[in-house]
Amino acid sequence: SKKPRILILGAGYGGMMTASRLSKQLGYNDAEIVLVNKHDYHYQTTWLHEPAAGTLHHDRTRMRIESVIDTNKIKFLKDVVVEIKTAEKKVILESGEMEYDYLVIGLGSEPETFGIPGVEEHAFAIRSVNSVRHIREHIEYKFASYNGSDVKHDEDLTFIVAGAGFTGIEFVGELTERIPELCKEYDIAREKVRIISIEAATTALPGFDPELVEYAMNILEKRGVEFKINTPIKEVTKDGVLLASGEEIKSKTVVWTTGIRGSSVLEKSGFETMRGRIQVEPELRVPGFEDVFVIGDCAIIIDEATNRPFPPTAQIAIQQSSTLAKNIKALVHGSNNLEAFKADIKGTVASLGGKEAIGVVGSKKLFGTPAAAMKKVIDNRYLFLLGGLPLVVKKGKLNIF
Ligand code: FAD
Ligand code: NAD
């Protein structure tokens, strides 16, 4: 009989790790594995704050997909997923369509704008190699613009980061490293440049350990970051941001990091979603579907300890890939004995730029150099899982201390 086709949408953490695990666990004759992604490269979303600020070249965060997967067992297709038609068991792609027997949805996230006017038109987002390359070039261009015109515009040198969650804080940290370099390159005094982190909640990094939050804010303030806490943004315009208080801050650069929602393909395809994400069954299937699995930022799983969804992280996506691969393997082999996903959260470590970072690992708080070293170990660990030691040597962060 014909081999069943396992179709994996998206080559992020979830999709790549699922493809890689399935290729190791299934024999050639068990199934056909097809991986679809809009680029022919895989990038590490968790590193994107660095190329966005310009502290790391974007090529360091990406790799050609066919250089890391087993192309004897996985067929890679560069295409854009447009819509999923579950009734017909097929996926509409930009340049064709493809049927599946088992589907894995790992299309990642999109920026959450909360419908705030002007965000889509006027703000930047840290979401892909293309988007962060744009941010880096834009920032540099603003430095050049400032000195390149006779009339000086302070808003050219005002950089606003909307949302002080982990993405916003990590990006601000990188900016504090990059801005002094740009000041030197463009002959601009550091005091001319403003970096403003604007957060709606009553603290930066809401929900995180307060002592570590304070540590992070102190470090960043010492490097010249202005925090505006308890300050929701209500509109973004071509001239800057409007705060809920009515105040306007002029800026030519607003980077929007107020959280994420699931890929819009899910809503478009008629799935029931919460903030664009699908709440999955414990075995990672879409309720009511035998053959559709969801992984990573597209999936919501409730943490029984808090009765709230686990935050969307690479850590969870990677962990889900082992349950998901096992479950698809079981189905392919004719078993209905599926495993429930169990999260094993190891902790959270966030970089603050340079040799500074904060984190909680197990029950231990880390800050400063040990935290920054741990961050690099985590980054390298993923490369090891995906491509073994050779990939760590090729793409890893080897200067740990
Ligand atoms: P992604 O890794 O985002 O991959 C989705 C893939 O799908 C991409 O390759 C994309 O090109 C592709 N795709 C999207 N739409 C289509 C389409 N229509 N057609 C074809 N292909 C498509 N998490 C942590 O655990 N630790 C961290 O330290 C951490 N740091 C972060 C730092 C930053 C700056 C950011 C932005 C996020 C960070 N996260 C971190 C969160 C983490 O990056 C995400 O949770 C993780 O990337 C989710 O994995 P995923 O596989 O669901 O999606
Ligand atoms: P987030 O949801 O964690 O944080 C968004 C922040 O924006 C919140 O603090 C929120 O109060 C604020 N905000 C919302 N609306 C606002 C408004 N109108 N004006 C001002 N502020 C507003 O989102 P994120 O930081 O993008 O992170 C997304 C996911 O990725 C999270 O699960 C996070 O844990 C994960 N992540 C992890 C790391 C790490 O582990 N090092 C790094 C980056 C991201």
Automatic annotation (TrEMBL):
<dbReference type="InterPro" id="IPR023753">
    <property type="entry name" value="FAD/NAD-binding_dom"/>
</dbReference>
<dbReference type="GO" id="GO:0003955">
    <property type="term" value="F:NAD(P)H dehydrogenase (quinone) activity"/>
</dbReference>
<keyword id="KW-0285">Flavoprotein</keyword>
<protein>
    <submittedName>
        <fullName>FAD-dependent oxidoreductase</fullName>
    </submittedName>
</protein>
<keyword id="KW-0560">Oxidoreductase</keyword>
<feature type="domain" description="FAD/NAD(P)-binding">
    <location>
        <begin position="5"/>
        <end position="320"/>
    </location>
</feature>
<dbReference type="InterPro" id="IPR036188">
    <property type="entry name" value="FAD/NAD-bd_sf"/>
</dbReference>
<keyword id="KW-0274">FAD</keyword>
<dbReference type="InterPro" id="IPR051169">
    <property type="entry name" value="NADH-Q_oxidoreductase"/>
</dbReference>
<dbReference type="Pfam" id="PF07992">
    <property type="entry name" value="Pyr_redox_2"/>
</dbReference>
<dbReference type="GO" id="GO:0019646">
    <property type="term" value="P:aerobic electron transport chain"/>
</dbReference>
<comment type="similarity">
    <text>Belongs to the NADH dehydrogenase family.</text>
</comment>
